[in-house]
Amino acid sequence: MNDMTPTSAERSAKLEGMGCKRKRVEDIRFVQGKGNYVDDVKLPGMLYGDLVRSPHGHARIIKIDTTKAVAVPGVVAVLTADVLKTVNLAWMPTLAGDVQMVLADGKVLFQNQEVAFVVAESREAAADAVELVEVEYEPLPVNVDPLKAMAPNAPMIREDIKDKTDGAHGKRKHYNHIFSWQAGDKAAADAAFEKADVKIKEFIVYQRVHPCPLETCQCVASFDKIKGELTLWGTFQAPHVIRTVGSLISKIPEHKIHVIAPDIGGGFGNKVGAYSGYICAIVASIVTGRPVKWTEDRIENLSTTAFARDFHMDVEIACTKDGKVTGLRCYTIADHGAFDACANATKWPAGLFSIISGSYDFPAAYCLVDGVYTNKAPGGVAYRCSFRVTEAAYCIERAMDIMAQKLGMDPAEFRMKNLIRREQFPYTSAFGWQYDSGDYQTALKKAMEATNYKKLREEQKAKREAFKRGGTRELMGVGVAFFTEIVGAGPSRACDILGIAMFDSAEIRIHPTGSGICRLGTKSQGQGHETTYAQIIATELGLPADNIMVEEGNTDTAPYGLGTYGSRSTPVSGAATAMACRKIKAKAQMIAAYMLEVHDDDLEWDVDRFRVKGNPERFKTMTELAWAAYHEVPPGMEPGLEAINYYDPPNFTFPYGAYICVVDVDVDTGMIKVRRFYALDDCGTRINPMIIEGQIHGGLTEAFGIAMGQEIHYDPEGNVTTASFMDYFLPTAVETPHWETDWTEVPSPHHPIGAKGVGESPNVGGVPCFSNAVNDAFSFLGSTHIQMPHDHWRVWTAAEKLGLHG
Q: Does the annotation mark 384 as catalytic?
């Protein structure tokens, strides 16, 4: 071989494929301010929409007077529910099988609910007119406590379904009841508790929080009356779903609806569903014949668009006296707000909450979830997690710490004793999930060694003694969390939304010169899809990643897909990408065999080329084969080099991680200092280590915000008291700790490239790790569980209840 001929390793490095720390190609436009967001869409004759919202948490609407608003110069129209009824659009279906008011019809059910939609020539005129819409209300009793929702005298939230006895998942227990859902084996779990040496029971609340993406929800609707076509630009995590839902609601044929999701400034689940502003903008464009833009402000975003969590969990663990878990039970009340608008697969009204057995070998387990209506905003999305997995992980990780405390065992050692062992994979949990792969003990050992866990506990012991002597007013807490997430929704036998299976797709077209384009059914909101999908293709097809364009978000060009949320992009669309590549590769192999005058089986793949076995000097590179595909194909073969794949995964994927956090708590001020946070993740095959690290940093920062201060809080009258960043904690660089990241790599055996997904893992594991650290600080004083969020006031109050302030 010529010494100047690049080696396989050198050719591989040049491709910048999987495993390469390739720089994000998206950032070239973002850092120069050249992104293209919905707010950048400006069309000739465009109007602006703004919403009139209710100041009440629950009230009957007596009268709406739009006279003064319509008289404002520049106002074109004011829509109310009565107007929407004329086109049968006063209510819309939710992703959970419920119905929801587009504009308040007869009464309002939560504060800031949409009441009327003003359309004007400018945003300023629309805002002025909003203030002049006069609404007469008759206040009604309010309930914002889900634990009181099914009381005999509770205020009736949904009068429209008061006589409905059947819900989407069985009989309704009460007029405020939505569903009951259960999983596991109740009899086996009950038997385990009857025999148990040791039992714990704790009421654990995961407070209502909000994804609060940097960019709020917005859209531009443009209806062409001549063609009868609607074009909708918007902040959509699932553009094809929006197109289908839009067609079902508006009765416009789906082929005449064009949905475009340009660059999106963060989603985190907040931009999955359909909101009233979208429907109103569409109706307004149809009525006026002009494009209409709707953009919500921050208060609207925080107080009305999809919330997350609000799970109230009674959890129990049964255990032997030597620390082996034998049973798990959990009863949960899920607060869904005024409408059931959760973004869950149809069969799973409580999402994938039955992953609550976590990473542990529970022989018996059972959970029951009741969903209820309250006078709060609807939603229930998976805020940087897979459908209710974060709630499950927080619950089991707190419960494991509480049991370890009762047993007098170290939390890490207690976990180590109960983790699923490597030889048990594929492991079927007590809830029936089949965990694909893992090496949990190795991950936890690595985390403990990296943080010198034993030394941390020795330091903590010394500080506790000093605290008892009065030598310090600071407590040290060490938090441990070991989580398993279930992502990659999902297998069509288990997952659908509105009857559409949760597959996903990739279409790849290789051009004659060896570059190509990949179009997908997912939609990036900052995850770096344009970078990582190209890396998969680079490795699979031997073409440089820089020569591959990745395109998402346009329903006219992208194959149908279910979008990006629940860490499903890599597990589902990433798999579709690899499978489409393999179709292309198989065709390229036949072309190469024809050109080299050998049989297909006489060729072998080498990084970026097919070469003749035993004669590596004879080869054809993928770039050469791309050219040949357009003029030199074998007789009877179609020209071109392209493929499409719709991937229906055989199973979910199960990424996991071991996290350790060290905090110092000042009992006199409630101030918490995060001294150290170590996060080890196993996401299977690592496509781009730099992007993985960035995703983990972002997820941990959001976990820090949730654990240490975030809460969408309502007072008893239904007023949202945390509807701006003055009151809702958003971590900045000032508060955010330093993150240490690490990894192990156990590929998924059923995924084409072995990848599992990682974007949401740090939020799933980070929240319980922070909370365990804070609770651990107080545990030696007899405290069992301090509810989140762990802001200064709540921590100070916990210290006060323990008598630490004299």
A: yes
